[in-house]
Design goal:
The complex is a heterodimer of chains A (166) and B (276). Chain A is mostly helical. Chain A folds into two domains: 93 residues, RNA polymerase sigma factor, region 2, helix turn helix motif (Rna Polymerase Sigma Factor, Chain: A, Orthogonal Bundle); 65 residues, Winged helix-like DNA-binding domain superfamily/Winged helix DNA-binding domain (Arc Repressor Mutant, subunit A), CATH 1.10.10.10. Chain A is built from nine helices and no strands. In chain A, α3 packs parallel to α8, α6 crosses α9 and α8 crosses α9. Chain A is globular. In chain B, 36% of the residues are buried. In chain B, strands 4-3-2-1-5 form a five-stranded antiparallel β-sheet. Chain B is 37% helix and 13% strand. Chain B is built from eleven helices and five strands. Chain B folds into three domains: 45 residues, no CATH class; 68 residues, no CATH class; 114 residues, no CATH class. The chains are: A mainly alpha (166), B alpha+beta (276). The interface between A and B is large, with 64 and 62 residues.
């Protein structure tokens, strides 16, 4: 194992956490994490030493997630009716059980539109700078900060209503 | 002084230039309203840092540490070069190697174009299977056994799950083909499958809740050429004997399969022996 791989291993808990922000369901999140690791290994020559490995890998993860959700959407189109798609879906849809076990903040986070959720997670959970998060999501800074602001406002309202925030 | 929300956020996130950080800091001392807004944002950050925190303390699954720490894949960048399995691959693939001497390499429909190409292409196919299609866990790992000795049977994902969900038995398209559909003794639907690629695999998966659990995977011989395939003809004997041990009644015919699919592969208890 080389230092790149050692660094990836050290990031594993955070990658899994970010995968849960994206995919929610633990099994899906770990699939996404695995895909991210595989892609990162294949593209390791594209990573510039000295830059942050975490935000580089979050970017890979986000793109992998986009690919995966697209193919899921295609799959559900094959089934036509959303009921059927739901029935035949693999465990992509968050189970009620998983939802009940989640904390208020996890539910509130999950209720955000994906754009806002990822912006919030990268900056407020993962501690990326605005610039790093914007790069990771491949959007301009202004887009990032506005997603962040909207996400924060929604979270604040939801969590205040539930008494989790003053 | 009125401080806009964006500036409060940037302050809490440490994104303001030092002089502005100091300015807000000073203003908070005399402006309880501002101090409260800052405190609310800090509380939100603290709350969020606990989101999905459980996973941070867990030992990651072995398959993830194995992937991260495993042998680095050869840097052929296959994902960009070639798409599995189709015609597009031909346009970008490297020039083919001359055909290997010795026994003729079996050629199989759509993969025919990719067969006999360079090693890089094969790595590409394998990597696409593993990387692009989420097959890695379910169909590709080398250590698959029929005994169930490897830890909990993997859940089918990606292309495999898609094929299991959607594909008609015997239909010849995509990277994964379905052989037979049947019900096991518990009434759950099971399907045999076959994934081609550098290391073809075949196996059987059964519906569990809303997932497909892979009950057995074995390496398969390369796809047969020439003869007209029937549903069972390309399923390795080892898989077929697993099927024999599991099956209740006969394999589903096309109509029953379509109904099972329309019902979301929900287990129909006792329906195994029904003849409709």
């Amino acid at each position: 194992m080389d230092s790149f791989q050692t660094d990836m291993l050290a990031l594993l808990p955070r990658l899994r956490r970010m995968a849960r922000v994206m995919a929610w369901e633990p099994a899906d999140a770990d699939d996404l994490t695995q895909l991210t690791l595989e892609r990162a290994l294949l593209r390791r020559d594209q990573w510039r030493p000295g830059t942050r490995l975490d935000s580089w890998m979050f970017r890979i993860m986000r793109n992998a997630w986009i690919d995966e959700t697209r193919s899921r959407r295609r799959r559900s189109q094959v089934f036509g009716s959303s009921d059927l798609a739901e029935l035949a879906a693999d465990p992509a849809v968050p189970s009620l059980e998983a939802r009940l076990a989640a904390s208020a903040v996890e539910r509130a986070l999950d209720a955000l539109p994906e754009d806002q959720r990822l912006a919030v997670a990268l900056v407020l959970i993962e501690g990326l700078s605005y610039q790093e998060a914007a790069d990771c999501l491949e959007v301009p800074m202004g887009t990032l900060t506005s997603r962040l602001a909207r996400g924060r406002a929604t979270l604040q309202t939801a969590l205040t209503e539930q008494g989790a925030l003053p | 002084m009125t401080v806009p929300d964006e500036e409060v956020f940037a302050f809490v996130d440490g994104e303001l230039p030092p002089e502005d950080m100091a300015r807000i800091e000073a203003a908070m001392a005399t402006d309880p309203q501002l101090a409260l807004r800052v405190e609310t944002q800090r509380a939100l950050r603290r709350l969020l840092s606990g989101a999905h925190a459980g996973v941070m303390g867990e030992t990651p699954p072995e398959r993830l540490t194995a992937t991260a720490g495993g042998e680095a894949p050869k840097p052929v960048r296959p994902a960009e070069v070639i798409a599995f399995p189709g015609a597009k691959a031909k346009t970008k693939a490297k020039p083919p190697k001359p055909p290997r001497p010795g026994p003729r390499e079996p050629i199989f429909n759509k993969n025919a174009g990719a067969m006999g190409r360079g090693l890089g292409v094969w790595l590409g196919l394998a990597a696409c299977l593993a990387v692009g299609l989420f097959l890695g866990r379910a169909a590709m790992p080398p250590a698959a056994t029929l005994t169930g000795a490897d830890d909990p049977a993997p859940i089918a994902g990606g292309a495999l799950a898609q094929a299991l969900n959607e594909r008609v038995s015997g239909q010849d398209q995509g990277p994964v083909r379905i052989g037979l559909t049947f019900q096991n003794q518990a009434g759950a639907y099971c399907r045999t499958f076959r994934a081609d690629g550098q290391a073809p695999k075949a196996g059987v998966a059964c519906r569990e809740g809303r997932m497909w659990r892979v009950k057995a995977v074995v390496p398969a011989s390369p796809a047969q050429t020439g003869d007209y395939r029937t549903a069972g003809s390309e399923t390795p004997a080892a898989v077929l004997s697993t099927v024999d041990a599991m099956i209740a009644g006969a394999p589903l015919d096309a109509g029953a399969e379509a109904r099972a699919k329309a019902a979301g592969w929900k287990a129909a208890k006792g329906a195994a022996s029904r003849t409709d």
